[in-house]
């Protein structure tokens, strides 16, 4: 009985639906009949009265796509963009009959100058570090003028500003993307700037100077530095540096392995000693777990962490690392005797019976030296570590070194920063002193490429041999860093206790 009732309900529903849509069906059939009649009539019209099928489709689409009037008015449209500019002319008719086309620029392709920092380089010189449009420098000749404006007149200085030409350095060797790195040197000849310490401000006038658009020039006035009255410490430029060794790190980004960061900082604090300091630049890589690893060393005064995530708005090479290292150079120029530039998957090493102090003393006649690379496998480990690799530190278990010879490998470097005008990632090309690359046997660095961003177990291949070939690359066993692991672990325990013992990859 129930099944019969259900069947009866389905029939009633179907019939009711036909009744409800009867009007719509009649309208649809009438429309189709009319269209067929028009199509038949068109066949008997003369050719000059023909209507193309595209025209017919257009008319039909206009009818079918026109939305019904809304029952309620839509909310007003709010735009965050600038108001529309009036329609400009696209062409002009010249007296000689030529049609002159007109090109109307709108908006801005890239910023003229983006400042990261401005710093004193002495009593009469400054450095301004920032980014600028790469096409502007590739195809044009932008110029810079520096102006010092005193806060107050004094016996030594009038209130009249002093002006000098800015000398630009482009230290990223053309690697820039939309933006390239620019370091502007402002040296005011003749007298000390703000010598009476009454205060003042440094203004940069950045001019595009045509830059391909020869009929157009823009000069931006940028206040880059202000010295309050009494803020200048002139003794800083001649005094002994606070630190013997200073680390300027490149931009850190991605999902970094906190355990690898833990190992790296513990190793290098011990390596460089108590008169050392590390500046870490966070471009998105210092997530909460990495921050927990750095905090103990920040509290002890060894680490300064800078958040530079906003630089991602400006498309430069490799998270703008050239700008970052130049800012670090000039910001801390007078605080360090030696400044090192390398990455957090690289470990500096000097041979037994030497120290970093003795090695750098032997290189003190140079203002810059480069450091030889020891490339290590990031996958091959010893079979004797099977089952306990997760408990060993990265440089403790990765013990196979790439043994290919006769090829050029990347180097890292150290400098006496007071001699530099600008710097790079692998070395500086803008310095006043001497450089040497002959440091083999005195100092080197072990490179564990890719391990800093690997959150899983690095040991993928376990072997029990002194030599192995993987992907056509010959490796030899090198336990140099493995042999130091015990000492580093004891040093970390002594310095910060057990607070990082539960750190995981």
UniProtKB/TrEMBL annotation:
Membrane topology qualifier: Single-pass membrane protein
Enzyme class label: transferase
UniProt keyword annotations, A-Z: Glycosyltransferase, Membrane, Transferase, Transmembrane, Transmembrane helix
Main location: membrane
Keyword Aminoacyl-tRNA synthetase: no
Keyword Acyltransferase: no
Bias (Pro residues) ranges: 67-77
EC annotation from Swiss-Prot or TrEMBL: 2.4.1.-
Feature: compositional bias, Low complexity: 78-90
Family classification: Belongs to the glycosyltransferase 92 family.
Protein name: Glycosyltransferase family 92 protein
Species name: Glycine max (Soybean)
């Amino acid at each position: 009985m129930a099944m019969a009732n259900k069947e009866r309900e389905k029939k009633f529903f179907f019939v009711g639906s036909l009744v409800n849509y009867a009007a719509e069906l009649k309208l649809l059939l009438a429309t189709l009949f009319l269209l067929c009649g028009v199509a038949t009539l068109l066949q008997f019209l003369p050719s000059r009265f023909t209507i193309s099928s595209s025209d017919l489709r257009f008319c039909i689409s206009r009818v079918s796509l026109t939305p019904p009037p809304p029952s309620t008015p839509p909310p007003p449209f709010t735009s965050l963009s600038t108001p529309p500019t009036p329609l400009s002319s696209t062409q002009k008719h010249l007296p000689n009959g030529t049609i002159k086309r007109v090109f109307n620029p709108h908006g801005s392709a890239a910023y003229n100058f983006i400042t990261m920092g401005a710093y004193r380089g002495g009593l009469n010189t400054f450095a301004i570090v920032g980014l600028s449009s790469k096409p502007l420098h590739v195809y044009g000749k932008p110029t810079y003028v520096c102006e010092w404006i005193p806060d107050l007149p004094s016996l030594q200085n009038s209130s009249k500003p002093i002006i000098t030409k800015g000398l630009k350095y482009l230290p990223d060797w053309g690697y820039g993307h939309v933006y390239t790195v620019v370091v502007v040197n402002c040296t005011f000849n003749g007298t000390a700037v703000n010598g009476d310490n009454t205060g003042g401000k440094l203004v940069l006038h950045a001019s595009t100077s045509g830059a391909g658009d020869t009929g157009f020039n823009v000069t931006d006035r940028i206040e880059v530095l202000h010295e309050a009255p009494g803020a200048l410490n002139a003794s800083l430029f001649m005094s002994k540096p606070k630190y013997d060794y200073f680390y300027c790190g490149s931009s850190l980004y991605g999902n970094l392995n906190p355990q690898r960061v833990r190992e790296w900082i513990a190793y290098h604090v011990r390596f460089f000693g108590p008169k050392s300091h590390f500046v870490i630049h966070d471009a998105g890589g210092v997530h909460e777990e990495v921050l927990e690893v750095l905090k103990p060393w920040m509290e002890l005064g060894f680490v300064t962490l800078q958040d530079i995530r906003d630089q991602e708005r400006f498309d430069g090479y490799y998270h703008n690392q050239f700008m970052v290292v130049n800012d670090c150079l000039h910001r801390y120029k007078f605080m360090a005797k030696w400044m090192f530039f390398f990455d957090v998957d690289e470990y500096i090493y000097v041979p037994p019976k030497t120290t970093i102090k003795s090695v750098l003393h032997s290189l003190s006649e140079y203002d810059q030296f480069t450091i030889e690379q020891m490339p290590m496998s990031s996958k091959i480990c010893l079979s004797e570590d099977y089952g306990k690799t997760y408990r060993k530190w990265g440089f403790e278990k990765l013990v196979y070194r790439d043994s290919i010879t006769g090829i050029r490998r990347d180097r890292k470097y150290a400098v006496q920063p007071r001699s530099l005008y600008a710097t790079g990632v692998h070395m500086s090309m803008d310095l006043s002193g001497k450089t040497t690359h002959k440091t083999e046997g005195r100092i080197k660095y072990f490179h564990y490429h890719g391990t800093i961003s690997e959150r899983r177990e690095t040991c993928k291949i376990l072997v029990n041999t002194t030599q192995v070939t993987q992907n056509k690359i010959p490796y030899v066993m090198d336990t140099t860093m493995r042999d130091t692991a015990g000492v580093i672990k004891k040093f970390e325990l002594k310095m910060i206790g057990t607070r990082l013992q539960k750190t995981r990859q």
